[in-house]
Amino acid sequence: MSTSTKSTPAGIDPRGPRFGASITAALLLITVFLALDAATLGAAFGLLVFVTASFAIGAFLGNSKHPYGLIFKKLVRPRLAAPKELEDPRPPQFAQLIGLIVAGAGVVLYLVGLQGGLVYAAGAAFIAAFLNAAFAFCLGCQIYVGLQRIGLIKKF
Amino acid sequence: MSLETRIALVVGLLALAVAAGLIWRARTGLSKHVTSGEVIDLAEIGAVKNGQPVTKFGQKVTFLQFSSEFCTACRQTAKLYSELEQVHPEILHIEVDITNRVDLANKFNILQTPTTLVLDSRGRVTSRIGGAVKQQTIQDELGSFEI
């Protein structure tokens, strides 16, 4: 069996994070649309701040405190069959952290006057959220080891 | 920017994401043949199974799976291999967590987890599977080892 020496936290329903990712993807696509016109750029910024805040909650407080996680738990999961298996909450939490960094970069770029950066950040975050929602793409699987190899993540 | 252009750009972005997803799904979990692969040193990779160091390879084939901490697909892949070795005693599944082993990630050029190295009875790498393994990939591998 598994050789991991660390204790694994209690499992979560894997459909929860994917439900949240679909809402996030939809919001980010709207953000991109709004950011493409000067008249609605301010609204795009507001929406991206909201998405960034939701990533921050997911990254630091976990999926159980995440507003979409709560919506899923209260409204969606009672209507679904029990999940076939539970999943480790740490990979989706790591994905939220990456989302926070990317969307947060868009917010910062906007604030320092580089307003074009907002649309690229929202676009990149959209692709990741969409792949997660539609294809069960797991960001941690794909990039964690790579980030560690180039020295961006250090763990002891 | 005109409304038409904005809609076209947003639809284009959506199409790009769908295309990326389809390509990723088609390519992940496939096996790539390795010619003149190296022989794995079980002590060097720190292979541990059920709390005991692993000293022998599987009778016919060993699936050496590299995993990391933030990896959902690693659990699913480990489960598939575990079920396989329950049915076929000539198969060995070893899972190595490389979260703290950047040296191994560099040595075996691992970019994603899970990455599985398929080893023959002498521990030589014969193929490499990047991503969550597909059922068909497993069947093909077993076929090539006459299992």
Task: Characterise the protein shown here.
The complex is a heterodimer of chains A (156) and B (147). By secondary structure, chain A is mostly helical. Chain A has one domain (15-76, 87-149). Chain A is built from 6 helices and no strands. Chain A has helices spanning 15-35, 41-61, 67-76, 90-111, 116-135, 139-149. In chain A, α1 (15-35) packs antiparallel against α2 (41-61), α1 (15-35) packs antiparallel against α5 (116-135) and α4 packs antiparallel against α5 (116-135). Chain A is globular. Mean pLDDT of chain A is 90; it is low at 1-5. Chain B is an alpha+beta fold. In chain B, 41% of the residues lie in helices and 22% in strands. Chain B has 5 helices and 7 strands, in the order αβαβββαβαββα. Chain B has helices at 3-27, 42-45, 72-87, 102-107, 135-144; strands at 31-33, 48-49, 52-53, 61-67, 91-97, 115-119, 125-130. In chain B, the strands form 2 sheets. Chain B has a 5-stranded mixed beta sheet with strand order 1-7-6-4-5, with helices on one face. A two-stranded antiparallel ribbon of chain B has the order 2-3. In chain B, α3 (72-87) links the parallel β4 and β5 (91-97). The radius of gyration of chain B is 19 Å and the shape is elongated. In chain B, 38% of the residues are buried. Chain A: Keywords: Membrane, Transmembrane, Transmembrane helix. Chain A: InterPro entries: DUF4395 (IPR025508). Chain A: The chain crosses the membrane at residues 19-36, 42-62, 94-112, 118-147.
